[in-house]
């Protein structure tokens, strides 16, 4: 028997091997044994070494007749990583972990804001028809394979190597990758990133287009597609959401934000804080690092910064990140800053001088989230990435990460802690409604305080890009009595934000306060998430394999104007063959309900998730899902 993998197989690289038929399988090496023989047909069991490169193999047999031998091809097979095998570098001991992080074809991704976490359903679909072939083609399209296929195929035994390839190939920036990233709200020649509900359609579009990039993706789309590919190849994987995620462009572990005297961000001087950012974690050993670095590795396919000349990121050991060990491969300093940078706020005054407004060590990297095992709830894994904020361990890790002495100065103007400010929302902050936001000022001193107050609200994208102002209030002098609280309302109306609200449904509210006695500035911000209407889903029919079901989807128009061009899109691994799209030709009047139906055909028993997206001219990316259990 013989196996070979790749266009230039060789025994030296582990991509070619010869072995005899034997009575039993020999673990740890290539071997084959006969299960049964009927006429001219053989049933064989093939065993591979646990560290063999993954990929498409050819199996052939040499038949000897007298002094002549003939080699003929038998079949081809695809070898994957095996998290059930103890000797495999991706071995995962717990069965419930393997079911969730390898076998589960559906899930949720967390979006919204830290003050309102929103669940977005996603169809990973790693076992859907054709996806495995696409994943293998993705590997074969990477520039390292095109340059040296023999070396590339030999390195495919390493999940470290594979994860860097996938991180680079999910974006198209350096290669013929899957997704074109775009964040400027101009998606007319493609698909709005918010509209996607699964990886399957994206990967099939990439394949069908001749490996041209699919337009468009943003961080959770990059992460979800990478998760599909990793699970398909046998590497345990999950999607991570980091709220208040920093983008440290100068690698000093501090995010400097400059503002004018009205509190407006000076973008050309400031670094970015994303409302949330998504990446993936994959489970593997790290023989290139110390044993404590085994386990979950952070991998980010969103193109932000180059790593070794390519737009990719990771794998970075989550344990190394927590301990501030930023000298470990790969890209650990960047991920550490995303979850643990300090934030330094500056005021650039009208006279040109600059004054430090505040230094916060606790605002970045909060509520780091992933889907819980076995259900759709949120699991908070912040403690995996960092010690408790402000603790000695957390500050020690921060100092350790600053081994290059890039610590910024923490000296600033004299503080005034007699006034505390925050922003409070109101109930029922729904898209299409008018609502109030409150600036809350607490005077903790025994003296009356006077101050200038500015309240503003602007639409904002999830990655921190501000849109137009939609409400403001300036009070030149406000008196706060001793030991008292004052609420200042700010009315935000639909007519003010409707034309500027982005699909992330976020509004950033800011309160800037200047104490008149000391001239000290105080500032607080909060991102408000506006709720979309609920998509109601009913599954009609007998919930059994190969029995036709009907999904009924409905949504109520919450706006005061009609909705035009309404479209329902539904898909679900094992429920639909591809996407089901229903276009609604008639306008949906204000306050009315629109309903659509699609047929489903369950192909295997177990838990399935039907994922639904609703689009219209005035409401985009409204998501819903329904879990259904299919019997035999």
Write the layout of secondary structure elements.
Layout: E1 2-5, E2 16-18, E3 21-22, E4 31-38, E5 41-47, E6 55-65, E7 68-79, H1 95-103, E8 106-113, E9 116-123, H2 131-140, H3 143-147, H4 149-154, H5 159-169, E10 179-181, H6 199-208, E11 214-217, H7 219-232, E12 237-247, E13 254-259, E14 272-284, E15 295-299, E16 316-317, H8 318-322, H9 332-340, E17 342-348, E18 354-360, E19 366-371, E20 378-380, H10 382-385, H11 392-401, E21 419-424, E22 435-443, E23 449-460, E24 466-480, E25 484-492, H12 494-497, E26 506-515, E27 521-529, E28 536-540, E29 549-556, E30 566-571, E31 580-584, E32 593-600, E33 606-615, E34 622-630
Parallel strand pairs: 3-4, 10-11, 13-17
Antiparallel strand pairs: 1-2, 1-6, 4-5, 6-7, 8-9, 12-14, 12-19, 14-15, 15-16, 17-18, 19-20, 21-22, 22-25, 23-24, 23-26, 26-27, 28-29, 29-32, 30-31, 30-33, 33-34
Helix pairs in contact: 6-7
């Amino acid at each position: 028997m013989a196996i070979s993998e790749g266009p230039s197989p060789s025994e030296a690289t582990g991509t070619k091997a010869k072995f005899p038929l034997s009575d039993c399988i020999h673990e740890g090496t290539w071997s084959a044994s006969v299960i049964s023989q009927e006429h001219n047909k053989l049933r064989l069991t093939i065993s591979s070494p646990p560290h063999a490169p993954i990929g498409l193999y050819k199996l052939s047999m040499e038949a000897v007749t007298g002094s002549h031998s003939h080699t003929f091809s038998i079949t081809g097979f695809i070898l994957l990583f095996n998290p059930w095998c103890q000797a495999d570098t991706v071995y995962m001991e717990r069965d419930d972990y393997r079911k969730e992080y390898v076998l589960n074809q559906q899930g949720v991704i967390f979006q919204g804001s830290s003050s309102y976490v929103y669940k977005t359903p996603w169809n990973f679909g790693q076992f859907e028809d054709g996806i495995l072939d696409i994943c293998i083609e993705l590997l074969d399209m990477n520039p390292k394979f095109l340059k040296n296929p023999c070396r590339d195929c030999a390195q495919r035994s390493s999940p470290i190597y594979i994860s860097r390839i996938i991180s680079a190939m999910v974006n198209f920036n350096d290669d013929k990758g899957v997704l074109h990233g775009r964040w400027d709200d101009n998606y007319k020649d493609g698909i709005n990133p918010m509209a996607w509900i699964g990886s399957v359609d994206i990967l099939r579009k990439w394949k069908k287009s001749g490996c041209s990039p699919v337009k468009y993706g943003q961080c959770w789309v990059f992460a979800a597609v990478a998760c599909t590919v990793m699970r398909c190849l046998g590497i345990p994987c999950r999607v991570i959401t980091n709220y208040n995620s920093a983008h440290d462009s100068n690698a000093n572990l501090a995010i400097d934000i400059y503002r004018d005297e009205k509190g407006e961000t000076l973008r050309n001087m400031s670094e970015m804080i994303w409302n949330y950012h998504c990446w993936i974690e994959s489970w593997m050993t790290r023989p290139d690092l110390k044993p404590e670095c085994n386990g979950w590795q952070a991998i980010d396919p969103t193109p932000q910064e180059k790593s070794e000349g390519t737009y990719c990121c990771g794998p970075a050991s989550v344990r190394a990140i927590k301990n501030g060990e930023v000298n470990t491969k790969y890209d650990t300093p960047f991920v550490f800053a995303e979850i643990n940078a300090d934030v330094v706020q500056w005021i650039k005054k009208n006279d040109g001088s600059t004054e430090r407004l505040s230094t916060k060590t606790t605002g970045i990297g909060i509520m780091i989230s992933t889907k819980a095992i076995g259900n759709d709830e949120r699991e908070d894994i912040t403690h995996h990435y960092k010690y408790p904020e402000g603790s000695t361990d957390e500050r020690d890790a921060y100092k350790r990460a600053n081994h290059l002495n890039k610590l910024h100065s923490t000296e600033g103007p004299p503080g005034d802690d007699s006034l505390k400010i925050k922003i409070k929302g109101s109930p029922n902050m729904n898209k299409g409604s008018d609502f109030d936001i409150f600036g809350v000022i607490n005077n903790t001193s025994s003296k009356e305080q006077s101050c200038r107050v500015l309240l503003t609200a602007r639409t904002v994208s999830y990655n921190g890009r501000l849109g137009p102002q939609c409400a403001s209030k300036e009070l030149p002098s406000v008196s706060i009595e001793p030991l008292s609280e004052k609420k200042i309302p700010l009315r935000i109306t639909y007519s003010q934000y409707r034309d500027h609200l982005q699909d992330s449904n976020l509004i950033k509210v800011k309160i800037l306060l200047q104490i008149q006695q000391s001239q000290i500035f105080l500032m607080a911000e909060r991102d408000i998430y506006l709720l979309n209407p609920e998509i109601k889903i009913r599954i009609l029919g007998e919930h059994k394999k190969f029995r036709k079901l009907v999904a009924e989807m409905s949504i109520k128009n919450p706006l005061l104007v009609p909705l035009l061009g309404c479209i329902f899109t539904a898909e679900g691994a094992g429920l639909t063959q591809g996407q089901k799209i229903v276009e609604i030709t008639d306008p949906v009047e204000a306050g009315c309900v629109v309903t659509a139906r699609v047929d489903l055909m369950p192909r295997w028993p177990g838990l399935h998730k039907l994922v639904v997206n609703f689009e219209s001219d005035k409401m985009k990316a409204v998501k819903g899902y329904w879990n259904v259990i299919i019997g035999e």
